[in-house]
Structure formats: C-alpha cells, structure tokens
Design a protein that fits this description.
The protein is an alpha+beta fold. It folds into two domains: 2-147, no CATH class; 188-386, Histidine kinase-like ATPase, C-terminal domain (Heat Shock Protein 90, 2-Layer Sandwich), CATH 3.30.565. The chain has 13 helices and seven strands. The protein has a five-stranded mixed β-sheet with strand order 2-4-5-7-6, covered by helices on one side. A two-stranded antiparallel ribbon has the order 1-3. Strand 6 (368-373) and strand 7 (378-386) form a beta hairpin. The protein is rod-shaped.
C-alpha cells in the first residue's frame, strides 16, 4: 500500500513538473502528427501490398485515399467539433457526440466517394485480385446509394476500428495535458496561499515584538528596582526569544529543539506577569527526544498566546496547562486554559486560529489532527502532528 502511494506521488510529481506548453510547440506538433500519419500510411500500404497483392501504384493511391479520408474525419472531430461541443454541460456534450457521429460517418463516406470518382475519371483501376474493379464499382453508384443505411453501418465499424487507436492516443494526451494544467494551478494556488500565510506569520511576529517587548521590559524594570537575581536570566530569555522571532524563524522549518526553546522562554517570561494565584503548568520533552525532528516555526504560538491572552487575563481565569510530547515521531501538543463563560467562543483568536488551520493544511496535509474544544469554563486545543519524513 505504501509502495503504491509512493509510486502515485512520484507519477503525479512527474506530470506536474512536465511543461506541456513548452514541450508541445507548433513545430513539434506538426512533426508528431506528420510521423503519426506517415506511420499509419506505411502500415496501410504494406497491408494493401501483402494482404491484397496490389501493385505499388494501386497500393499507393488507395493508401493516399484512406489516409486523407481519416485525416479529414480526425481533425474535423477533434479540432472543430469537440471544442464547440464541450463548451456546454457534460450531459449535453455526450448527446451531441452521439448525434454528430452519423454526420462524421457521412463525411467519411463522402470523401471516399469523391476520391473514387476522381480516380475513375483519371483512369485508375484495380485490374486483378480481391479488389478488382473496386474503384469503378464505387464511382458508378449514386451518392445516396453510397450513404445507404447498410453502408453507413459497415463504414461506421470500419471507422471505429481504424481511428480507435488515434482517438485513444489523442484523448489520453489531452487528459494528461489537462491533468498537468490542473496540478500546476493547484501548485500555484498552494504556493500563493503559503506566501499569504507566511505574510500573516511575519505580521504576527511584528505584532509580537513590540507588545511582548513592552510588557517584558516593564517586568524587567520592576525586578531591577528590587535588585532581583532573576534580572540576568530574564534578559537572556528575552534576547533568545527576540533573536528567534527576528532571525531564526524565517525558514520553512526549524529544528524542533529550537522551537521548543522559544516556547519555554516565552512561557517563562509570561509567567512573570502573573501572581502566584495563577496556576501555570507546562511539560516539555527532553532535548534528546527532539533530536532529528524539524517543524514549521511559530506553528503553535497562536494557541499559546491565546491561552495567556484570553485565559489568565479573564476575571475567572486561573489555570493554564501546556503539555508537549514526542512519541513515535509524532508531535503532541495540548494546551488548556480557563475562560470567562460570558465571552463567545469566536472571541478567542478567531482569525489567528483560522490561519493556524490553513497553515497546518498547507504545510502538513493529511499529517495532522487538530481538535479545538470549548467545554464549560474551559478552552482546549489538541494537536497531533506527524514529523516523520
């Protein structure tokens, strides 16, 4: 099952990476079509020579007739009829194809009939073998005899048998080209969305820096007045936090240990703002457990910031519980905080939470599970993220 998925992803990526428009230029299109019809004509010529024992000249004129007839039907169908048919609904298009099929059979018979008249007037004829007198016989009948019901049915079978490979190749090519364009559009859309999310992330960082810095400097000032021994540690935590948000989080992914170090520093600095009546608990994995894993920067910051902003700052808020674990290559994140029941769930970082969902979907499609719950008096966020490559 996994091997099938790997092959499917590889095949999809190969199609998406292939540039049809650059490869399939007008010159190459003309070359490929010419080779296709030359190959068809060569096989048809050999068939007349070997199966019907015709002369080279008779094989050539019959090959020329059959090749041109099939080219007329093929190009009228794919380059004139289909583009107009598929402008409407799919059901209507199918009905139109069924309706126009007899028309193309008549066209096929008509062009063949015209060739027979021209050949007969030029004195061309098959003098021996199974097809003896075939040109005179075809030219001597009237047009309405040529398009009789019996003849149309028999010619329809011939058309299907002859043109089926060409139709199959053309349809397969068009499906591949359409699939390629669809994948490229999806890729461009995803890239644009990621760029928008990154812009929002940078805006988040720009918001974080001044407000967070202002509050922390106030706390630092209070500690310095008391000549508290924690001042050097606070300065170091603040320096590491600002350095991470300004410089180290500008990449697509960062070492998990760096991200957790930032979260620890942020929580420690936030704790300084609250009295001992606030119950702030947190649990982090060891550095060895994080070794070798990478994560998108600031991925969970919105959840943590909201927990402090809307939880502990509320009148009834006194509990904040943050737990991060690493098990079997999966990142488990749980944060829980008290909330004021008088406030609506939508008030708790609505846009920020929605952007976090988008970012997870874009960066970790099918690799995450996010649950946001709002039981009475509480707000919980649980995230499971597969960090394995």
């Amino acid at each position: 099952m996994q091997n099938t998925q790997v092959f499917s992803d590889y095949f999809t990526n190969r199609i998406a990476a292939f540039d049809f428009d650059q490869f399939y230029t007008k010159k190459k299109r003309f070359l490929f079509h010419s080779l296709m019809w030359l190959g068809f004509a060569a096989l048809l010529f050999l068939s007349y020579r070997i199966a019907y024992h015709l002369t080279y000249f008779n094989s050539f004129i019959l090959t020329l007739r059959m090749t041109i007839v099939n080219m007329v039907v093929f190009y009228l169908f794919f380059y004139v009829a289909l583009p107009r048919i598929f402008k409407g609904r799919v059901g209507t298009a199918i009905l139109l194809i069924i309706f126009t099929f007899p028309i193309f059979v008549i066209i096929w018979i008509s062009v063949t009939y015209i060739f027979s008249i021209v050949y007969h007037s030029l004195g061309f004829e098959i003098l021996d073998g199974e097809l003896k007198g075939a040109i005179k016989g075809a030219a001597s009948q009237t047009f309405f005899q040529a398009i009789s019901i019996n003849r149309m049915v028999s010619q329809a079978i011939i058309i299907i048998s002859i043109l089926a490979p060409f139709f199959f190749v053309k349809i397969l090519f068009e499906i591949s080209r359409l699939y390629n364009r669809t994948l490229n559009i999806q890729k461009q859309k995803a890239t644009l969305e990621i760029q928008n999310i990154n812009i929002e992330k940078d805006f988040l960082k720009a918001q974080l820096n001044p407000h967070f810095l202002f509050n922390t400097l106030n706390n630092l000032y209070s500690l310095s007045l008391k000549k508290d021994d924690l001042v050097p540690e606070v300065i170091l935590n603040l320096s590491d936090t600002m350095s991470y948000t300004l410089y180290e989080s500008n990449t697509e992914k960062v070492p998990l240990s760096k991200e957790l170090e930032f979260i620890k520093n942020y929580v420690e600095l936030e704790k300084m703002r609250y009295s001992g009546s606030k119950d702030i608990r947190f649990e982090f994995p060891s550095e060895s457990e994080c070794s070798g894993f990478y994560i998108a920067p600031l991925l969970t910051f919105t959840f943590i910031e909201n927990a402090f902003k809307y939880g502990l700052k509320s009148k009834t808020g006194s509990l904040l519980n943050l737990c991060i674990k690493i098990e079997n290559g999966c990142f488990y994140f749980d944060v829980e905080n008290d909330i004021d029941d008088t406030r609506k769930t939508a008030d708790f970082g609505g846009i920020g939470l929605e952007n976090s969902r988008k970012r997870l979907q874009l960066l970790y499609p099918d690799k995450y599970e996010l649950q946001i719950q709002n039981p009475e008096g509480c707000f919980k966020v649980s995230l499971k993220l597969d960090l394995k490559n």
